[in-house]
Design brief:
Chain lengths: 289, 162
């Protein structure tokens, strides 16, 4: 299990990293926490000729509030996400989801940027970012642009990020009054990817749901934003009938593969169970229950 | 591919070596430094037998390149005992039967020392959560958890006495 050889680069700034990436084009690959990329390199599923390590780049490891929104630097680790009480108060779903990712050693290295840039439908943060309506800040040779998480995922390991762009930060809109969040993930043991998982962010305003977003992990070839399920909750009291309709709409867009944990029918059924639990939990949290 | 010179501190001593960029930290430790305490269990980032402490974090050394440790500070199981005296964790593992075959032990010990630095008085649940990245095929974990609790107590008493 030894990776193919490569040339190692350790830039000190984002500009330097972008120019290395531009220079090496398709042969270049960014290294963040390495806990998806290095396993793939060991299996020779990835053989980048140039590895551009972002661990020496200044300014990518931060958690800050900018005009009410939360900005998280791409190189912030999952352990740092969990450790931040401020972040857990502002946006509790981040700690909730990060605690369900892998184990302490993996979280000490693995970054939130790598988790969303990777493009593996099994990664947990993409669905969370879709539910939060977060956006991703990308820097390339032509400058900076921002893309909605909901528009980012195109296929397995395929995203809207260009080869010469670096993800520098994630931007999460401020949590308004009455917003509840929940991430429910079914897995057999620590270190497992989701059999099924659902992220729900909804806002209750005097007994009525004024905004809702449902997104799913590992239930298709990309993370899934469940638009119809979200619409089925909006404008309702999130009562039994509305939840039923949302669960049905969420399950309808799932298309998981059978795996070690069970057949397709099981994983789709569990998608429904996780969606229901996440909606009920988010609603209870929204109303202070 | 050009080899790279790296320098780092391992168990308090300056060491240098020449590695290919693709050399994994575990291979550098075991094959170049002859530090065979950290084990290779799964090679797939799951088992934690290769855990070492790099710059104050527990990492799986099968999933870090040696070049990434350049300039860093590394602690392996070989660096736990001081002045011929076992570290309280090592003593507790021996006392409480925290090992059987011993394969997972170096990783468990090095992970547990970081856990206790971060949380000197962990509950049983916190210990289980803290070592959840280290697999043991023998013990059923009961005695590992017990040993870590007992070592934590000894270390707190030592700290208070100083
Ligand atoms: C045992 C184990 C269990 C795991 N379980 C889970 C789990 O349950 N859920 C989960 O979500 N993940 C899981 N993971 C994966 C882990 O969370 C990874 O850390 C994560 O997927 C990738 O983040 P990274 O920082 O390690 O990125 P890397 O592995 O360094 O990079 C991943 C990919 O993203 C690209 N990339 C990274 N950062 C950037 C950037 N800033 N800009 C542009 N491109 C970038 C890289 O080029 C690479 O293609 C597990 C991993 C292991 C080893
Ligand atoms: S050998 Fe590194 S985690 Fe198993
Ligand atoms: S003592 Fe044998 S694997 Fe843990």
């Amino acid at each position: 299990m030894i990776p193919a050889n490569f040339e190692y680069h350790r830039p000190g700034s984002v500009d330097e990293a972008v120019s290395l990436l531009t220079e090496h084009g398709e042969d270049g690959r960014v290294l963040a926490g390495g806990h998806s990329l290095i396993p793939m390199m060991k299996l020779r599923l990835a053989e980048p000729a140039h590895l551009i390590d972002l661990n020496g780049v200044e300014g990518l490891r931060s958690i800050a509030e900018v005009e009410g929104a939360i900005h998280i630097g791409a190189m912030t680790t999952q352990a740092e996400i969990i450790a931040s009480d401020d972040l857990a108060a502002r946006c509790p779903i981040l700690r909730e989801a990060a605690e369900l990712i892998a184990d302490p050693q993996v979280r000490a290295c693995g970054t939130i940027g790598g988790n969303v840039a990777n493009g593996d439908p099994g990664n947990d943060m993409p669905a969370v970012m879709m539910a939060l309506d977060a956006s991703f800040v990308l820097r390339g040779p032509g400058g900076e642009r921002s893309l909605a998480a909901r528009e980012f995922y195109e296929g397995p390991f395929e995203t809207a990020r260009d080869d010469d762009e670096i993800l520098t930060a994630l931007r999460i809109p401020a949590r308004g009054a009455g917003q509840g969040q929940a991430y429910c993930k079914l897995k057999r043991k620590v270190g497992d990817y989701a059999i099924a998982a659902a992220a729900v962010v909804l806002t209750m305003d005097g007994g009525t749901c004024s905004q809702a977003a449902v997104a799913l992990t590992n239930l298709g070839i990309t993370p899934l934003y469940a638009e119809a399920a979200s619409a089925a909750l909006t404008g309702t009291a999130v009562d039994a009938a509305a939840i039923e309709a949302a669960v049905e709409a969420a399950v309808a867009i799932t298309d998981p593969a059978a795996d070690l944990h069970g057949p397709v029918v099981y994983r789709r059924r569990m998608a429904g169970v996780m969606t229901r639990r996440a909606i009920e939990t988010a609603r209870a949290r929204a109303t202070g229950g | 591919m050009a080899k790279t010179e790296i320098k780092l501190t391992v168990n308090g001593e300056e060491v240098a070596g020449t590695v290919e960029p693709r050399t994994l930290l575990i291979h550098f430790l075991r094959e170049q430094l002859n530090l065979t305490g950290a084990h290779i269990g799964c090679e797939t980032s799951h088992c934690g037998a290769c855990t070492v402490d790099l710059n104050g974090k527990s990492v799986k050394s099968c999933t870090v390149f040696a070049v990434q440790a350049d300039g860093g500070e590394l602690l392996t199981v070989e660096g736990l005992a001081q002045g011929g005296e076992l570290h309280p964790l090592q003593a507790a593992f021996a006392e409480d039967h925290g090992l059987q075959c011993g394969f997972c032990t170096p990783g468990m010990l090095i992970r547990a020392q970081r856990l206790l630095r971060e949380n000197p008085d962990p509950s049983e649940a916190e210990i289980r959560w803290g070592i959840s990245g280290n697999l043991c095929r023998c013990t059923g974990y009961q005695n590992i958890v017990k040993a870590i609790r007992n070592a934590a107590q000894v270390m707190r008493q030592k700290e208070a006495a100083e």
